[in-house]
Amino acid sequence: MKFNAEFDENTFEIDLNTEDSTFVIGDEPRNYEFEEDNGRFYLRRGTKLHKIDNVKFDGSLIEFSMDGNWYKVSVKDEEELLLDRLGFKTGSSGAEGALTSPMPGKILDIMVSVGDEVEKGQRVAILEAMKMENELKAPIGGVIKSVDVEVGQSVEKKTPILEIE
């Protein structure tokens, strides 16, 4: 899978191969290990072990703490980059009140019902993906128009979760 990651005003092209736990930035292939233990995530690169906590997704923006430092990274896959080049909106800006799954996973909790009022950024669902629990937040404030998934349901990337009007 190919991605573009923007971090500190720099853009990196990343080719990620989860089957053999390698990634390429530039021309240099690198190995990695990714593990989860009691809600904490570990990324090993060579002899360095990094602790990752507090992972939050907002469209293509990912916020997390690693080794006690906070990071914000914008990550887009090949499809999102193509849509950007063609002038289409992607992520939460595509359909203002539509919340879609940022990645494949399983719905662990839905915290709202049709008719509930929500504020922008309010937690509305929990998605388990790659052994991580990810908080999904309302892209806008408003009233829940529909909830399109159920607790325990497996979803693919960009599956509609709910709609806010």
Q: How many strands appear in the DSSP assignment?
A: 17
Structural class: mainly beta
CA distance, first residue to last residue:
34 Å
What percentage of residues falls in helices of 4 or more residues? under 10%
What is Rg? 17 Å
Q: Output the strand order for the largest sheet.
A: 4-3-2-1-9-8-7-6-5
> What proportion strand?
over 45%
Number of helices: 1
The figure for the number of domains is 2
pLDDT averaged over residues: 87
Model description:
Helix content is 5%, strand content 58%. The chain has 165 residues and is mostly beta strands. The strands form three sheets. Strands 4-3-2-1-9-8-7-6-5 form a nine-stranded antiparallel beta sheet. Strand 6 (40-45) and strand 7 (48-58) form a beta hairpin. The protein is globular and about 50 Å long.
Key attributes of the depicted protein:
165 residues; mainly beta; nine-stranded antiparallel sheet; four-stranded antiparallel sheet; 17 strands; 58% strand; globular
Give a quick rundown of the structure:
With 165 residues, the chain is mostly beta strands. It is built from one helix and 17 strands. It has one helix spanning 78-85, and strands at residues 2-7, 10-17, 22-25, 28-31, 33-37, 40-45, 48-58, 61-66, 69-77, 98-100, 105-110, 117-118, 123-129, 132-137, 142-147, 154-155, 160-164.
SSE blueprint and pairings:
Layout: E1 2-7, E2 10-17, E3 22-25, E4 28-31, E5 33-37, E6 40-45, E7 48-58, E8 61-66, E9 69-77, H1 78-85, E10 98-100, E11 105-110, E12 117-118, E13 123-129, E14 132-137, E15 142-147, E16 154-155, E17 160-164
